[in-house]
Structure formats: structure tokens, C-alpha cells
Amino acid sequence: MRYGAFRIAVVYLVISLLWITFSDHFLFFFQHGLSAEQILTISSGKGYFFVVVTALLLFAIIRSDDRKLKQSEQQYRSMYESNPNPMWIYFPGTLRFISVNAAAVSAYGYSRNEFLEKTILEIRPSEDAEDVIASAARLENSINDSGIWRHLKKDGTIIYVSITSHKISFNGQPHVMVLVRDMTETILFEKRLEMINKDLQNEKRKLSETQRISRIGGWEFFPGEQELLWSDEVYEIAGILKEDNRRPFDLYLEHIFPEDRPMMINALNDLIANGKQLDVTHRITGLDGSTRYIRQLAKIDSGNPETLKITGSLQDITELKMLKEERDRYQLSFESTLNSMSDAFFALNRELIIIRTNEAFRVLTGRDSSDIIGRSIFDLFSKEQNVFFPVYQKALEDRVICEKEDYSLVLDKWIKLAAYPTDEGVAVYFTDISEQRSKDARLKEAVERYELVAQATRDVVYDMNMLQDHLIYNTSLTHLINVLPENIKYNLEWWRGLIHPDDLAEVVRGQEIIIREGRTNWECEYRLNCGNGIYKYIIDQGYFVYDEQKRAIRLIGAVRDIDALKRSVHENRQLADMITRVNNMIIVTDTYRRVRWVNKAFEDMTGYNLGEIGGKVPAGFLSGPESCEDMLTALRVKQELREVFSLDVIIYTKERVPLWISAEFTPSYDESKKFQGYVTVCQNITFRKEKEAEAKRQHDLLRKIAWVSSHEIRRPVATILGLVDLMNQAEDEAERNEILPLLNRCATEMDQMVHEINNEIKNVEEFH
Questions:
Q1: 31-84 pLDDT, tens per residue?
Q2: Coil, strand or helix at 653
Q3: How far is the C-alpha of 651 from the C-alpha of 685, rounded, in Å?
């Protein structure tokens, strides 16, 4: 529009100048034939004509440009409104929508008015707000590709969009126009594609891992070029380095054992010539010098002679070979083991035909293998006499292990039989248990007798079959444990569940040590849950029974309730600990007044220890020079009368230092009220006795002072008073002079007494 206005101005200027120049020259050319008035009229008409013509011309030009401008604006608005991609204009200062096209309204679900009430932040997840603001601030004047963003539809759906924006002038102010392309399907497709690629990578990794674990590798061979391609697993299986630059085909043939190489080459040639599938097992030598067994499988993948391609795989079956050899050795060992067994053994197929026996069975039946193998079991034991037939049949049909003990009329023995299902049929082991049944009968009688004894003592007697994990208790169990008979379980796990958690490990460890060392007697004290969460101390004494292979098969034992005894011992220990820790001296004597026990306080205070005074009479080593014989005699009398008494007495330490003690003598008795001796508790009162002696001395001094004050001082006072009275009655000076010496002597005597009192008081103060 700017260039159109300039063009109009230039055209108008050129036409105006040309018109003025040529019209004035033309008028000047004809001015001689015209009057001044005519010239003026023509000049004015010429101007009017020019203005009218140029006005019409300008109108036509401006109208044409305006029509083009409106057409351009209409095309631009049509492109904005009818654009299939969402578009909008927003104000950068507030980020508020100013205008949106129909595609935006349709794509986002908001109405046009709802759009115009929002900002561009409100159609995005809140966590993207800071990034949106920063991106808007970075916009340049050119077209800006802002990349992929997340937008929110009205229904909350998140879509992925590509944003293109550029700055425009709208209504005379700077704005930003945005073009949006929905990339949701593309992004989701890329994510799905990424997930598929990840899955493919995982599957490839799993396949590689599976091949590595199963020791399988793949290869391709092109006979025309003698080119051999390997997977990575082949290098590892064949023990060939990837860095080796030799041809893989020649390299692999070199690793095959020389005696196996022709077999591999012939099979490969047969595949190429006749199309026969290759299946060869050969040996190779690994890098570490070990021998490996490799199975090769291959087929022709492309039959075109010019592009013949063979696809194959190889598997390291060294372990399988080793297992087969081990199985063969095991089979021989198994046969040897069967023949060395003392139990008879035979195996039946599904038709109950004997297919295998051991030496013990052949000896028992008195027949050779050739006369037994391949015959029906009923040819040896008729169905009517074969009491174990239901056992074979159940093991064969139900595929479960079956056991039975019964008397065989054919063998005239008690037999314990076990039938085990096998792939071929059933394997049967049986043992002569006639002697064992006899022993069990005797054992049962012994257990019944012991049960009677156990009922009298309330001990819990048990018998545990360790191989079958089966426990048998006597009826005393319900006396010890508050449990209903129907809630009792007969296995080791149930019993160990009753043991206190802090004691369980010690119980298990003790049993394991006994079994490991092959000993028989086991004993352990532990706490047992006897119901309602109450734990009691019990002592469990057991006897382990071992079989010929030194396996522990039975544990027979008895459980005794020692809770009262245990708690009594614990209380006694606590009491002994308390007695040991008290500060008072304690002496325990027997019925003959001999020392049985003293506490640590006695040893610390006297210097005597129990080892040197045990069995001695206390009076013999505690007496000294100041001991009162009469008091010792009175003490013995009171002890003989078994009285409770107390007294204060002097004793002497090991260093012969005297101590005053206050002793309380208490007789002790056992549960049957039988006299056991005396318990003497002694308290050191030496300090108290010393204070009492000091107080007595103070009291004596005070009494002496009081006596002097109240008696001795009265004599000179009375004399002085009498002399003063005589002086008052004297008639002359001479008589008074005779009284003065007497008065002076009494005063001197009184002064001496006062000094004596002061000295005594000083002695009392010094004593304090």
C-alpha cells in the first residue's frame, strides 16, 4: 500500500506538471487572438477541467487499490479462519487470547468466548507454565518454530502439538500469531515405535542370553565362496578368538578332532549334493585345551546353485555327554547297589511283568534271573496269597508311593513293603521285619510300663521317628500343656513352636551337635509355652537311636516340669546376691555353732575369708583381751534355747583391731522345721560406742564442775560473808585490821577454786 500511494503521487505530479506546461504554452500561443477576459475564462476552465479529470482519475486509482486491499484482506482472513490447523492471536503482555479460528474451537472443545477469557497458560499442564513464559519471551521477529508442546483440551485430554509463531501488528499493537499442528498420533506412534524397538532389543538380548545359556549358536555357509558367517555365541562355544584373521571355515575344521573331521565334511557334502539334512555330533578342542562335544544341525536355505546358502546351528552338548556317561556309570553303580542291598527288590512294568530284580530277591525266591525276568509277579506269588497286590496296583494307578506291613503266608515272615511309581511301572522294596516286629512288641510293653510310671511322676514321655517326622506322647502331655487333645499335633514343627523363641536356637544347636558327634544322650533346659502365653521351665532328656548307616532315626526322651525348682533357685540366687551385696556382716552357723558361710562385708571388715574360718566357732577367732566371758556364756545359753536375741559385743579383726558390733541372732529351719543353725546379722557400731564414751567423759567432767561450783565454792563464800559481818560489828580499827588478813585468805582460796573451774571448762572445750 505504501508503494501504491507513492506511485499515485508521482503520476499525479507528472500529469500536473505536463498539463500546466503544455496548457500554458498553448494558451500563450493563442493569446493574441483572444481578449483578456477570454484568456482568464479559458485559464480558469483549464484549471477546473484538470481538477475534475485528475479527481476522477485519482478516484478510479484509489478505488482500484482499495478493492485489491479488501480482496487481499479477505483472502488473508479466509486463510486464517478456514485454515484446518488451529490458529490464534495472543497479546504478549498478558498472554491472553485475542482471536482464535474455527479449527481451534473445534479441536480444543472451548467456545470462542471461552477461549477469549483464557490465557495461553490455561490450555497447558501447570508444570509447563514456566517453560511457556520463557519461550514466549524468546520470540524473535522472524517465524519461530517453538517445537513440541503439551496442550489440554476442555475435557482434560492431553495432546502433543507443534507450535509455529511469529510477531504481527494487530489493531495497531504488537501481537503474536500461532499456528498449531496436532502431533499426538505422530508422537504416540514414535513412542510405540520406541517401545517396539526396546522390546525387540530386549527380545534380541533374551534370545542371545538364551543361546548363551543353552550353549547354542547360529551360522550361515555359502559353499560357492567357501564363506562361513557366525553369530557371537559360536566364537564362545567353539573357543575361537574373534581376532583370528584366518578363514572361519578352515579355522573351524582345524579345531575338529582329526578322527571326526571326515564325518563332518562328508555330511556337509551330502547336504550340498543331495539335500539331506545335516545332523552330526563331533568333538572339538577349545582354547583351554578342553574337549567339547558339538552337535551340528543344518539345512539348505536357498536352492539356487549360484547363490546356494546353508543355514545351521550348533550346540555345545558337552554337559549332556557327560551326563549320559554319568548316567551309564550310575546305571552300573545302581545295579551294583541293588545287588549289595539286604532288602529284596524287584521292578514291574505296567502289565505287572518283572523287568528287574536284585540278588536278595533271587536268593529269597531261589530262582535265577533268567527264570524271573519277563514273568508275571503272579507266577511267583498267586493273587490269592499275594496280600501286597493292592499296594502294587495303587502305586501303579494313582502314581503315589505306597507302603504296607503285613504277614506273608508264602514267605512265612512279617514283611515291610514300599512301592514307588516309575516311568516304566512300579519299583518294589521289601524287608523282613519279623525280628523288628518282635522287638516292637517288647518295646510296646516297655513303653506301656513306662507310661504307668510316667503317669505317677507326670513326666511327658515321647518317641520321635526322625525319618517320618512323627512324634508320640504319653497322656501326661495334657498335664504339662493346657491344650485340648484334638489340638495336639504329632510332628517336630508343632513341638518346636511351643519353645520360647529365645531358647529355640540353643535347643536345635544342642541336638545337632549330639547327632554330628554320634552321641546318644542329650539334655537341655528351656522354656515351654504351656498355654495362654505362660512359659514354664522344663528339662528335656533324650536318647538318640542310630541305624547301621549312623543316621539318627529316633529320639526317645522325657520332659519334666522344673519351673518351680528353677524359679526357687533363681530367687535363692537373687537372695544370695542381695545378701552378698549388703553392707552388714552376715554369719551363717550350723547346729554346732560352726561357720558355714559369711558374706563379703564380713570378709572386708574382719579380714577373714570363708576358706580359713569355715567350720570354726566364731568365738574362737573373734574374741580378744576385752571380750567378756560372761557375755559369751550367755550367748551360748541363748543359742542352745534357740531364741531370737540381739546384743552388743566387742570382736577383733584379723589384725587384732577391736570393733564394737550390734549382732542379731535368728535361728534358721528347713522345710520340715528342723533346726539348721543361726543366721547372725552384725552392724559395726564402733563409732557409736566411741561417741557414747566421749559423752560419758563429758558428763563426768560436767558433774565434777557442778560439784565444785555447788559445794566447794560455798565454803569460802560463807567464811567471807561471816568475816564481813564481824567487820561491820567491830568497835575499833584494830579489831577490823585483825579480820582483813582472814578475809584476804578466803578471797585467795575462792580465786583458786574459780581458776580450777575455768581449767575444767577449758578441758571440756578441748575435749569437744
A1: 666 677 777 777 777 777 777 877 777 777 777 777 766 665 555 566 677 788
A2: coil
A3: 11
Decide: helix, strand or coil at residue 592.
coil
Say how many C-beta atoms besides its own lie within 10 A of residue 638's C-beta.
16
pLDDT digits (tens, 9 = 90+) for 375-415: 888 877 776 667 788 888 888 888 888 888 888 777 778 88
The residue among 228, 224, 217, 275 whose CA lies nearest residue 254 is: 228
* Alpha helices in 426-562, H assignment, sequence order: 434-457, 477-480, 492-498, 501-517
* Residue bearing cell 567350720: 615
Mean pLDDT of 102-128: 89
Rounded distance between C-alpha atoms, residue 359 and residue 337, angstroms: 10
Contact 422, 416 (CB under 8 A): no
Residue 696 sits at the vertex; the CA angle it makes with 694 and 702, to the nearest 5 degrees, is: 105
CA distances from 663 to 485, 659, 684, 691 (A): 59, 12, 9, 19
Q: Tell me which DSSP letter residue 720 carries.
A: H
Candidates 285, 235, 280, 296; CA nearest to 258 is 285
C-alpha separations of 206 from 19, 231, 548 in Å: 95, 15, 51
Distances, alpha carbon 445 to alpha carbons 160, 216, 555, 617, in Å: 89, 66, 18, 58
Select from 151, 154, 177, 174 the least CA-distant residue to 164.
Answer: 177
Indicate the burial class of 329 (C-beta count within 10 angstroms; 0-12, 13-18, 19 or more): exposed
Core vs surface per residue 248-271: b (16+ CB within 10 A) or e = bbebbeebbeeebbeebeebbeeb
Residue 563, all three cell numbers: 519351673
Cell (9 digits) for 558 = 522325657
What SS3 class is residue 496? Answer: helix
Strand (E) or helix (H) holding 161: strand 158-170
Q: Is the pLDDT of residue 318 over 80?
A: no
